[in-house]
Design brief:
The chain has eight helices and eleven strands. Strands 1, 2, 3, 4, 6, 7 and 8 form a seven-stranded mixed sheet that branches. A two-stranded antiparallel sheet has the order 5-11. A hairpin with a 2-residue loop joins strand 9 and strand 10.
């Protein structure tokens, strides 16, 4: 973990107590605790991933400027979890392609219904739900980075066409069954042949970096904002493969956030 003096300086700059960003983070923490409880009650594997895991290791919780939460899990566990979350009551609602016709991604989000946010990149245009969220990514065996790159280009083209012509346009209606009903499932089948030691986010995905099975299992525990959550077996190896020298602090002037116009109630 970085020195406490540096941590407090970053907190004061980016997410001091009482700020909108800190309130946003605490709302995401509520969602994360709920998911953790569901997973533990049902013997479902998950782990903090990407920048969320980086925050846990380097900052003991959220990266001070971070505004999203990522978890990953094996595909079988993913299907079990989303099946439970579809029936969730209370202030949360599951968003995936089955609950939101405007959601084109092969992962899910658990959304908070007492908030609204907008994605800075505009990729949430046309989606049904807009609350604070946790991203739930599923991983599957993968042999080909090239196939993932190809599928991400196809998805990007589809998103651009939907933004240009509208979600109900003839172009959008034609592309969805072609890509999501035929081409992407075929790419997944080819990419997953055999049982490689590498896992990737399910096609189509913008996240091409592989996860090494040996870095992940058996899972460990890590402190995140004062609570114990699931983490990869070897957090250092996992983060080093993704980020290199992950303990270095980026230039504050180059930091980008995912969301804008956050409203909580």
């Amino acid at each position: 973990m970085i020195p406490e003096r540096l941590q407090q300086s970053l907190r004061q700059q980016f997410n001091p107590d009482g700020s909108t960003r800190r309130a946003h983070q605490l709302r995401m923490l509520e969602l994360l605790r709920y998911i953790d409880g569901v997973c533990r009650d049902n013997d479902i594997d998950y782990w903090l991933s990407s920048g969320t895991l980086l925050g846990a290791v380097r900052h003991g919780g959220f990266i001070p400027w971070d505004d999203d939460v990522d978890i990953e899990m094996p595909e079988n566990d993913y299907h079990r979890l989303v099946g439970i979350l579809r029936r969730a009551a209370g202030p949360y609602i599951l968003q995936d392609s089955s609950t939101d016709a405007g959601f084109l991604f092969p992962f899910a989000k658990l959304r908070d219904t007492r908030s609204t946010i907008r994605e800075a990149d505009g990729l949430d245009a046309g989606q049904r739900f807009s609350g604070v969220y946790v991203d739930i990514f599923r991983l599957a065996p993968s042999r080909s980075r090239w196939l993932h790159h190809l599928s991400s280009r196809m998805l990007g083209t589809e998103l651009k066409l939907r933004l240009r012509y509208g979600t109900s346009s003839a172009v959008a209606r034609a592309l969805r069954p072609l890509l999501h009903g035929l081409i992407f499932p075929l790419i997944r089948a080819v990419d997953g042949l055999g049982h490689p030691a590498l896992l990737r986010h399910t096609v189509p995905s913008y996240f091409l970096a592989p996860r090494h099975r040996s870095d992940l299992f058996p899972l460990s525990e890590i402190d995140f904002e004062g609570i114990s959550l699931k983490a990869p077996r070897d957090c250092d190896a996992y983060l080093s493969h993704l980020y290199g020298n992950y303990m270095s602090i980026p230039d504050p002037d180059r930091i980008q956030v995912h969301t804008s116009d956050v409203k909580l109630w």
